[in-house]
Design brief:
Elements lengths: L3 H6 L3 E9 L23 H13 L7 E7 L1 E3 L4 E3 L2 E2 L8 E3 H12 L4 E2 L6 H16 L5 E9 L6 H11 L4 E7 L6 H7 L18 E5 H4 L2
Helix pairs in contact: 4-5
Length: 221
């Protein structure tokens, strides 16, 4: 069995993608109680979680360019809801330079969007899975995709998400879900698959356990 580091030393590249929850349940970003409140002197919960995970993952990503997406917001110019928009608003090139680039794109994006809903994460899993699927077809398998999803709570498309994860489990891809805030994250533990095998709504089991769920409040100190 080859280890993760064997692959890295053999030239496998890690492609690290971030997805941020911009649903209304996070609270109005202008309110200091909001999980998205931009405090002048200290990072909010989303930024703390992004930096904590991102700074570790970025060491394994050679180009240090990270696509960053948002979900659950109404976005300009026509303010329709989107579940996979580029945080820098450049759909052709959603990449940000380093974790600091993601932080800046996030801070610039917040005043321009309207937090909305629902909390659907299947679209962003499918988006990264389609990139991973293209990588499979090259037969080189030189890239492995890690999707970091930062969310404040219960997801609304559980069936579609289970389907997306079962599909993605056949691809060079893993998903880290970090639960931000104090919501009840029981549903998220199901996706993690540690307590048993996750299955799609049709009953198809995951090929391998590709989801790690972490409640940020348990680890942030």
């Amino acid at each position: 069995m080859y280890s993760f580091l064997d692959y890295i030393m053999g030239g496998c590249q890690i492609q690290f993608t971030v997805a941020i929850d911009f649903t209304a349940s996070n609270g109005d970003p202008r309110n200091s109680c909001s999980l998205h409140y931009i405090h002048p002197y200290q990072p909010n919960e989303y930024l703390k979680a992004l930096v904590a995970v991102g700074e570790i993952c970025q060491d394994y990503d050679s180009d240090k360019m990270f696509p960053a997406f948002g979900f659950g917001a109404l976005i300009p110019p026509d303010f329709k809801v989107s579940h996979d928009f580029a945080v820098n608003f450049d759909e052709e090139n959603p990449e940000c330079a380093g974790i600091q680039g993601v932080v800046e794109a996030y801070q610039n994006c917040l005043p321009k969007i309207q937090l909305y809903g629902p909390t659907n994460i299947a679209p962003i899993i499918q988006k990264v899975a389609s990139s991973a699927s293209e990588e499979m077809h090259t037969k080189e398998a030189m890239e492995y995709f890690i999707l970091l999803i930062l969310t404040d709570g219960v997801i609304t498309d559980m069936a579609d998400t289970r389907e997306a994860i079962v599909h993605a489990s056949h691809l060079p891809m893993s998903v880290i879900i970090v639960g931000v805030g104090n919501a009840d994250f029981t549903d998220m533990q199901i996706l993690d698959g540690d307590d048993g095998i996750l299955r799609s709504p049709k009953g198809e089991p995951v090929l391998r356990d590709i989801v790690q769920f972490v409640p940020f409040k348990d680890f942030k100190h």
